[in-house]
Design a protein that fits this description.
Blueprint (H helix, E strand, L loop, with lengths): L1 H21 L5 E5 L6 E5 L4 E6 L3 E10 L2 E6 L5 E5 L3 E5 L6 E6 L2
Antiparallel strand pairs: 1-2, 1-8, 2-3, 3-4, 4-5, 5-6, 6-7, 7-8
Length: 106
Amino acid sequence: MKRILKTALALVLAISLAACEAQPAIVGRWSAGEGDGAIEIEFKADKTFTFTVGGTETLSGTYETEGNTFTFYVKGSAGESGEFTNDTVTLINSADNSRLELKRVD
C-alpha cells in the first residue's frame, strides 16, 4: 500500500512540475513608470496580452516566444519584438531600436 501511495505521489508531483515548465517565463504582469506614463503589460498563458498606458489606454493582441525572445502583434500590425528573463521584459522599438525595460509585478 505504501508503495502505491509513493508512486501516486511521485506521479502527481511529476505532472505538476511538467505543467509549471510548460508555461513560458514571460507569462505574468510587467510594469514600468508611474502615474499617467505608467505602462503595464500582462502576458497570458493562452498567448494573448493586454498593454495599458496610464491606466486607461489599452491595446490587446497575441504573442509568440522563441527562447528568450518574443514577438507581439496588435491586430493589423507587423509585430514588435522584445526579450525576456524571469525578472525583466525589454520591448524593442523597430523604428529606432530604442528599448524599454519592464519589471515583473507578479
